[in-house]
Specification:
Residues 324-333 have a biased composition (Basic and acidic residues). With 369 residues, this protein is mainly alpha-helical. The chain is built from 16 helices and 5 strands. The radius of gyration is 42 Å and the shape is rod-shaped.
């Protein structure tokens, strides 16, 4: 027997095989054989590989029974059931050994589709997601159903299911439960519908960021979320309103809060506020804050507000901090302008005085007697 796998197609046949049967995965997933018993599926598959003409089947019942591992009496009962379900039509039993009929494939597919629609109507995507969000320990099947519920039923294909299956293998269930909660919250802000075209794209964007940042555990996700929130607080204290995690400034804030010499959020906030207070006018540069606050307190391993305040009292107040370069430039410019003004005033005064004494001349000879 040859087993040939070609572009996701599996061909199970032998050289002497005369008929091949192809059944797509989407039909099976939609419940093609949902209303048939295992024995009925066996006989139907056997019949579907024994066409005599375009739609007429002719089988030898003893051979069918032996091939399927069934008793002949059971085969006759199964055929009767398939006839009752109108899947086998125009039955014609030539004799006790040979049976002829037609297969009503339209009935099989129509029955499946109609029941699949009924099943789809009964399932509320919002209820599926709510059950997962409220559950303490949801199973893989429940989480998978909640994830795919963000897509309309017409998009529930094999590719999406395989994608979700890979997520189940790569991430902890707690993470995926949190993913369902976040996207469901986003969906409610958009109007609270069962699903939107952009919902699954938003979901996939979150998953892609997890892959990029190598976040595969729930504890790692919590740490990353905490860093994200604290970075926003530092940015707000510094005066950044438009938040984007890709800016160089925010990456600098993250470096203060992360790594081997990470500062606590409270100390970093205090450093920013102290730098702003000491700045004569405007906003201090990040380099100024790092040189005069962040780097020194990292070296001293100061990581609580009490130690930070003592350090400020002892060090910063006794020796002034290195001024911001922008302050120096402005101060030098103002100082230069002031010196020029003073020099000009001095020159003007000197000239005035010189002029005054030069003109103060009396001709004493004029008053001689």
């Amino acid at each position: 027997m040859k087993i040939i796998s070609l572009q996701q197609q599996l061909n199970l046949s032998e050289n002497e095989s005369k008929q091949l049967l192809t059944i797509g995965d989407s039909l099976l997933e939609k419940g093609l054989f949902r209303n048939l018993s295992g024995s009925e599926i066996k006989i139907l598959l056997y019949f579907l590989t024994h066409f005599k003409t375009d739609n007429e089947i002719e089988v030898e019942l003893p051979l069918a029974a032996g091939a399927m591992g069934l008793k002949l009496n059971d085969v006759n009962k199964i055929i009767a059931n398939l006839i009752k379900k109108e899947i086998l039509i125009s039955p014609n039993k030539v004799n006790d050994q040979v049976f002829c009929c037609n297969v009503n494939l339209e009935k099989l597919l129509k029955t499946d589709n109609s029941q699949n629609k009924t099943r789809t109507r009964k399932i509320n995507p919002r209820e599926i997601r709510a059950q997962v969000i409220q559950s303490k320990n949801p199973g893989q099947s429940e989480v998978a159903a909640a994830l795919i519920s963000f897509l309309p039923p017409s998009s529930h294909n094999r590719q999406r299911r395989d994608e979700i299956k890979s997520w189940l293998n790569d991430f902890e269930l707690k993470m995926l439960k949190e993913l369902v909660r976040r996207v469901d919250k986003w969906l409610k802000r958009q109007g609270g519908q069962d699903y939107l075209p952009g919902a699954f794209a938003y979901l996939r964007a979150i998953v892609d960021s997890w892959y990029q940042e190598e976040i595969t555990s729930y504890s790692r996700l919590q740490a990353q979320d905490k860093l994200h929130r604290e970075t926003r607080e530092l940015a707000a204290a510094y005066g950044i309103k438009a938040f984007s995690a890709e800016t160089a400034q925010l990456k600098t804030f993250q470096n203060w809060l992360n790594g081997g010499q990470a500062l606590s959020k409270e100390v970093a906030l205090a450093a920013i506020r102290e730098a702003v207070r000491r700045k004569r006018d405007g906003q201090p540069s990040l380099k100024y804050i790092e040189d005069n606050f962040i780097n020194p307190i990292k070296e001293l391993k100061i990581n609580n507000l009490a130690d930070f305040r003592r350090w400020l009292q002892k060090e910063m107040d006794s020796s002034p901090a290195t001024p911001d370069q922008r302050d120096l430039k402005k101060e030098n410019k103002n100082s230069s302008a002031k010196q020029q003004k003073q020099s000009k005033q001095k020159n003007n005064k000197s000239e005035a005085e010189n002029y005054k004494w030069k003109d103060f001349f009396i001709d004493f000879d004029k008053y001689k007697e």
